Amino acid sequence: MSTPQRQPTYFTNAEGRRLVHVPLSNHPGHFVAEADAFDDTRRRIGTNCPLFLRGDGKGRSYVATCLPGDRYAHHQFARLLLNCPKGYRARFLSDDRLNLLPENMRVERARYALKDCTWLGRDSQTTCGEDLPKGD
Question: At residue 79, what are phi and psi to the nearest 5 degrees?
Fold first, then answer.
C-alpha cells in the first residue's frame, strides 16, 4: 500500500497575495512561497523533482531538490526560486528557512566567484528586485 502524495495547497492571504503551502517529502511541515514564482520554478526544473528538508552541517536546514539528470546533487530551492545567476546565492533575512517569500530572502554575490575563485567580500550584496548580471 503506497502513501498518498501530499499536494501543494494554493491560497490567497489577507493582502490578496496568491501563495502556496508546499509539503516536504521528508518532513511533516511545509514551506510557503509565492504561487507564481513556485509554478514558474517547477516548470523550469521539472515537476517530478522531490522537495525535501536538508541540513547544511551547521545546524541549519533548508529546502532542497534534485534536478533532472543530476539526481545525486542537491540544490537549494530558494536559489532556484529566485533564479540566481552563476556566482550568486540566496540568503535568508530571518531564521525561518521555510519562508520562501521574496521579503525574507536576498540575492547575494558568493564570497568566491565561480569563474576565477577570487575573494569578493560581503559588501557586494543586492536585494531580490534588482537587476543581476547574467550568469557566464
Answer: -65, -40
Looking at residue 72, its pLDDT comes to 73
Q: Which alpha helices (H) appear in the chain, and where do they start and end?
A: 35-45, 77-81
Mean pLDDT of the chain: 79
What phi and psi, each to the nearest 5 degrees, are found at residue 49?
-75, 125
| Non-local CB neighbours of 32 within 8 Å, separated by 6+ positions | 19, 20, 21, 22, 98, 99, 100, 101
Total count of residues recorded for the chain: 136
Strand ranges across the sheet with 99-100? 9-12, 18-24, 27-34, 99-100
Q: What parts of the chain have a pLDDT lower than 50?
A: 1-2, 113-136
- Residue 16 CA to residue 36 CA, distance in Å, equals 13
Backbone angles phi, psi at 35, to 5 degrees: -60, -45
